[in-house]
Q: What sequence folds into this?
């Protein structure tokens, strides 16, 4: 048993190495130095105190977005468009953060984050409702809602929510009382995210609600025969997934930026997919992947300035990691026999 | 043709919708022929890439493989097609490379789903993420192609009153090729041995297997052929319609194509009709903006296609029947 | 005599089971060989190996003296082997013609020539006296006709050997007789027939020789003239078996389930159950006989709250049961053994323990205020595994690790160990070994004796006849007759099942 666990854990690790090797070739092909690039990546991401702080802050966000996808996957739903929910949650939380005055921090922060979660839940829940009542597959509906939400937040930021005194499109700053504090420079968001991961893990292990969602995820037909309302579970699953995605956006606004610009949030929802798949939809197992990716993301701009390599290198590396970790040949090489996870394939409802 | 026209139900809402579109079209044509023609022609330009992209989905899904990697296939092949054309200064080579890239990408998809029996939706997602990662990393600004595929009128056909201008004039060769390719795929699926075998594999692979048909081979070939079409669309967009490559230019079109495929009930002609309607709606909304209905903010015009896509599914998804074996791994040995 | 098929020393293992262990047998020209054995004995695996659908681990297969490569269906077909599968291998949405020509289509270049194909099908069906409409869509046809299509598919090539895998499972007695006649005609024309079954009556009626498999091993070969049904049964199971269920007379009480004027649609929107009424009493077993696909599945699902009722009501002990709410219906005292245990009865990737409480995990004592109690679950699971003789090292193992019979025991244990008014048992012993069948039958009888009403839906007429206190025959979504179980006439019921009313 012990041996098997270490072998399974080896797969993502080996995938990272293979991805880095392929990345090195491509960097070299572009005429840059892979050694220097990776050096910057490691130093900026993981070595310096500032780097570590930035990494953990990013990791907290990514744990959350990974959790959003994970909750869906466990219920048999693939919330591929979590990005739209992240955006709506971020704008909603920002709005509460700058609009409402006079609240103490311990009320203002939770209210702002809760409002973000609510808006994310509305978007996700809408996709769930479409699936439960009209058979619209969430893969298509959430991708479309992604673009729809992007257009809506863009409109709101340019008009109603715009800080008029600034030339560029952005909202006013969130009040200090809505900003998540750092403890000795380390982000509190990370701690919150880990607590949330533990909570999600507990929900699926111990509660009847978690059991219902998971049963629907594993065998919809048997769930219905056993008296579980499949439609309710689909809506609930998407609602929860959306809520966590919305919370992710709110946390990012409150902890990192302090105001809303639509382009800040690029890729958070999509990185969540990579993280959830790497951690095989296990709420605790996604944490290391989130830290790794958090490090790479926080060093992203540094590799451009210090090594001259396109910051999109990170996108490429993550795609390669995901490919090698999910495709079975590396696993076969290492002789791990962990099963790859499945979603609900097919368009039927 | 029986399958397309054989079962027209005068009361069906699809028939009514088509009739309504035709009536509006005729009315507009009479009211202002030039504007109507240009709207319809631009609807064709919006619709054709989507129609072709949904052919990728049809080829794969008729054989039982769900392909949500259409997006990534188009992105990668548009990328290679454009940069090869830019480097070689030859758009023919560019297009060929685009098609080959599409086939290669789909081959990877086929490997993951058929050979390694991975979850098909996850496999498609990986294709999309890989394509996005590769193209954004390798992207170089400022490249240009020497020319795009030329625009011309088809003699005689373009002079047919009413439809001639819309379908047969002021378009490029790939656009016209689409008008041949889509019916050809319809013939392939319904009228040929290969099509019969493909459909049987998509509906009940066990049945095909016991009839001595190799399920794996049929699926592999269909997915790769689908990839060739995906590559064609990538080249079509970057070398004919737009003439340049921009990051993430697909912007969800691959998923819209899937919705249109579902709406068209996995029938090439159905998906084509759906795509044209979709293109018309988009052209019309763009036209409305030009006409000075400009109190609608730009963002809301851009989100219309996405709303349409959801609406398309709301009205069709629960009612259609996908190929029965779709999304399921076929394992030959069962105890 | 000419040997058509010769299998020697064939072995095949699946993870955890030796499906075929060193099996040798042969089939001669013009001979009907019955391959007898209970579910899971390895019969299907053996013939699938012959047809190239399963790769054997070792052994040789020769047809007309030529050895056949492992796993090569095309080679088997080209050597003149035809096979009719247990689960029909038809494409439901395609026409009869398309199904029959699949794999060797009449064509001009790459195009199908459907006219020629249609003509061929008409001629083929005339030649063998098996009537089909070439243009019907397969899914609209009754199972008896679907099987005819399967047989025509096999006969389309000039075959020397026809393999039939459990061909009679879904047929009425009359259809079975017709099929046996077809087999005799084929044998008379020189075709070798290898016929898989677990029904002794058919073996006695048609076989020239009988080969018996048990647990993957060949345990004997004989001829019908040398033995009788009892002897075959003993060979098949390896011990004395009681073919009759031991049960006392029913003590019917008040009505526990009443269905009034119920109409239900199937998944494709067609009416499957029409204006259906039925009363089930406490303490009786009411058997619903009928060929599959006559609305039984929809009836069961509508009663248990899984499928929407277009009209009509269902009452449990006088109280109206809600539509589309399986949980509530279950709480009212209706338990349900679904016909498809793999799809509807179990979550394969859950432990046996979780499967044993799958429909009550949210109730006390298994959960309090939404928090699950695993100690209670485990104690309960341990008890049931013991009581229902579920063969497993631990109740923590996954349900997927169990054999078919033990999976069914998990479902039966879950459904019968509750406070019950009504038990709806759909095909409760399908694909289950004889030992488990006896056990499940006894459980159903004891549920009856403790005062529950049992609604038994089965396509196996033998099961209906041996268990039911009353028998209702269902055809075309309606009950065509209700008869007392005592002394019911098999032939008469068979005619009713086929829709004949004299």
A:
């Amino acid at each position: 048993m012990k041996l098997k666990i270490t072998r399974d854990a080896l797969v993502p690790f080996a995938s990272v190495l293979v991805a880095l090797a392929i990345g090195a070739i491509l960097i070299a092909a572009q005429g840059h130095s892979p050694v220097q690039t990776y050096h910057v990546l490691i130093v900026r991401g993981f070595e310096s105190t500032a780097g570590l702080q930035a990494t953990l802050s990013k990791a907290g966000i990514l744990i959350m977005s990974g959790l959003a996808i994970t909750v869906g996957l466990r219920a048999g739903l693939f919330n591929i468009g979590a990005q739209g929910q992240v955006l709506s949650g971020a704008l909603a939380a920002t709005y509460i953060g700058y609009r409402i005055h006079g609240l103490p921090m311990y009320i203002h922060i939770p209210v702002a984050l809760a409002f973000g979660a609510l808006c994310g839940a509305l978007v996700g829940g809408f996709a769930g409702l479409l699936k439960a009542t009209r058979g619209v597959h969430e893969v298509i509906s959430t991708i479309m809602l992604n673009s729809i939400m992007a257009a809506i937040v863009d409109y709101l930021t340019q008009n109603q929510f715009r800080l008029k005194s600034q030339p560029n499109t952005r909202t006013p700053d969130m009040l200090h009382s809505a900003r998540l504090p750092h403890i000795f420079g380390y982000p509190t968001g990370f701690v919150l995210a880990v607590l949330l991961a533990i909570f999600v893990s507990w929900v699926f292990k111990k509660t009847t609600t978690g059991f219902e969602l998971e049963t629907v995820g594993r065998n919809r037909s048997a769930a219905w025969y056993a008296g579980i309302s499949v439609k309710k579970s689909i809506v609930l699953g998407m609602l929860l997934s959306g809520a966590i995605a919305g919370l992710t956006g709110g946390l990012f606004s409150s902890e990192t930026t302090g105001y809303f610009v639509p382009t800040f949030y690029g890729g958070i929802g999509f990185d969540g997919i990579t993280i959830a798949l790497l951690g095989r939809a296990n709420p605790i197992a996604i944490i290391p992947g989130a830290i790794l990716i958090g490090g790479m993301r926080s060093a992203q701009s540094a590799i451009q300035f210090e090594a001259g390599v396109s910051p999109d290198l990170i996108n490429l590396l993550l795609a390669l990691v995901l490919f090698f970790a999910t495709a079975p040949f590396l696993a076969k090489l290492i002789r791990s026999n962990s099963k790859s996870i499945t979603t609900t394939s097919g368009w039927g409802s | 043709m029986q399958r397309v026209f054989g079962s027209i139900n005068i009361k069906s809402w699809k028939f009514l919708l088509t009739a309504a579109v035709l009536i509006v079209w005729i009315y507009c044509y009479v009211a202002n022929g030039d504007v109507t023609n240009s709207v319809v022609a631009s609807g064709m330009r919006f619709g054709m890439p989507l129609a072709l992209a949904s052919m990728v989905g049809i080829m794969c899904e008729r054989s039982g493989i769900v392909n949500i990697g259409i997006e990534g296939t188009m992105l990668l092949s548009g990328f290679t097609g454009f940069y090869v054309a830019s480097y070689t200064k030859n758009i023919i080579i560019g297009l060929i490379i685009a098609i080959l890239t599409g086939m290669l990408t789909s081959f990877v998809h086929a490997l993951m789903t058929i050979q390694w029996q991975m979850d098909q939706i996850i496999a498609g997602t990986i294709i999309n993420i890989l394509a996005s990662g590769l193209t954004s990393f390798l992207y170089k600004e400022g490249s240009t192609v020497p020319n795009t595929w030329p625009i011309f009128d088809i003699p005689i056909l373009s002079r047919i009153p009413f439809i001639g201008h819309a379908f047969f004039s002021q378009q490029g060769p790939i656009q016209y090729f689409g008008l041949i390719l889509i019916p050809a795929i319809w013939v392939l699926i319904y009228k040929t041995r290969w099509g019969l075998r493909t459909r049987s594999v998509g509906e009940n692979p066990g049945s095909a297997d016991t009839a001595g048909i190799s399920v794996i081979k049929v699926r592999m070939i269909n997915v790769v052929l689908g990839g060739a079409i995906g590559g064609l669309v990538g080249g079509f967009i970057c070398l004919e319609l737009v003439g340049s490559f921009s990051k993430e230019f697909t912007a969800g079109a691959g998923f819209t194509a899937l919705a249109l495929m579902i709406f068209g009930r996995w029938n090439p002609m159905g998906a084509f009709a759906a795509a044209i309607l979709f293109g018309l709606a988009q052209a019309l909304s763009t036209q409305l903006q030009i006409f000075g209905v400009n109190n609608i903010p730009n963002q809301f015009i851009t989100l219309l296609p996405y709303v349409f896509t959801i609406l398309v599914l709301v009205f069709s998804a629960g009612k259609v029947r996908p190929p029965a074996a779709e999304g399921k791994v076929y394992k030959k040995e069962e105890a | 005599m000419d040997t058509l098929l010769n299998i020697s020393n064939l072995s095949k293992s699946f993870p955890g089971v030796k499906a075929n262990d060193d099996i040798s047998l042969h089939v001669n020209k013009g001979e009907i060989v019955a391959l007898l054995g209970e579910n899971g004995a390895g019969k299907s695996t053996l013939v699938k190996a012959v047809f190239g659908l399963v790769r054997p681990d070792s052994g040789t297969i020769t047809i007309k003296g030529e050895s056949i490569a492992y796993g090569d269906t095309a080679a088997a077909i080209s050597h003149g082997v035809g096979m009719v599968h247990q689960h029909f291998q038809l494409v439901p949405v395609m026409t009869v013609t398309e199904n029959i020509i699949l794999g060797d289509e009449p064509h001009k270049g790459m195009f199908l020539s459907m006219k020629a194909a249609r003509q061929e099908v008409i001629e083929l069906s005339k030649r063998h006296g098996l009537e089909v409409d070439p243009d019907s869509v397969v899914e609209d046809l009754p199972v008896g006709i679907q099987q005819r299509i399967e047989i025509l598919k096999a006969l389309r090539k000039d075959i020397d050997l026809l393999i039939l895998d459990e061909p009679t499972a879904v047929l009425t007695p009359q259809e079975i007789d017709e099929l046996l006649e077809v087999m005799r005609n084929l044998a008379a024309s020189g075709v070798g027939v290898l016929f898989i079954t677990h029904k002794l009556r058919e073996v006695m009626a048609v076989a020239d020789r009988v080969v018996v498999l048990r647990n993957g091993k060949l345990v004997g070969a004989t001829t019908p003239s040398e033995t009788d049904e009892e002897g075959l049964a003993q060979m098949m199971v390896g011990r004395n078996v009681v073919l009759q269920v031991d049960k006392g007379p029913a003590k019917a009480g008040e009505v526990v389930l009443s269905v009034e004027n119920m109409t239900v649609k199937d998944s494709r929107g067609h009416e499957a159950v029409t204006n259906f009424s039925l009363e089930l009493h406490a303490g009786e077993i009411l058997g619903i006989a009928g060929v599959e696909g006559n609305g039984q599945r929809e009836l069961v699902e509508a009663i248990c709250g899984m499928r929407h009722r277009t009209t009509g009501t269902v009452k449990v002990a006088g109280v109206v049961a809600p539509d589309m709410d399986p949980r509530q219906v279950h709480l009212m005292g209706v338990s349900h053994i679904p016909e498809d245990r793999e799809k509807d009865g179990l979550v394969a990737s859950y432990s046996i323990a979780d499967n044993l409480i799958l429909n009550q995990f949210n109730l006390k004592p298994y959960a309090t205020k939404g928090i699950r109690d695993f100690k209670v679950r485990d104690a309960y699971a341990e008890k049931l595994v013991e009581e229902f003789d579920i063969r497993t090292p631990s109740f923590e193992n996954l349900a997927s690790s169990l054999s078919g019979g033990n999976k069914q025991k998990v479902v039966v244990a879950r459904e019968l160990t509750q406070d019950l008014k009504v038990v709806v048992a759909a095909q409760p012993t399908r694909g289950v070994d004889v030992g488990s069948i006896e056990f499940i039958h006894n459980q159903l009888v004891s549920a009856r004796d403790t005062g529950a009403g049992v609604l038994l839906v089965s396509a196996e007429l033998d099961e209906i006849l041996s268990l039911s206190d009353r028998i209702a025959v269902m055809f075309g979504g309606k009950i065509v007759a209700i008869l007392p179980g005592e002394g019911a006439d098999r032939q008469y019921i068979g005619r009713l099942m086929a829709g004949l009313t004299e």
Summary: Chain C touches chain B at residues 14, 17, 19, 44-45, 51, 53-55, 71, 73-74, 77, 83, 85, 87, 89-94, 98-99, 101-105, 107, 110-112, 153 (CB under 8 Å). The domain at 244-333+420-502 of chain C is CATH 3.40.50.300 (Rossmann fold). Chain C has a mean pLDDT of 91. The two ends of chain C are 46 Å apart (CA to CA).
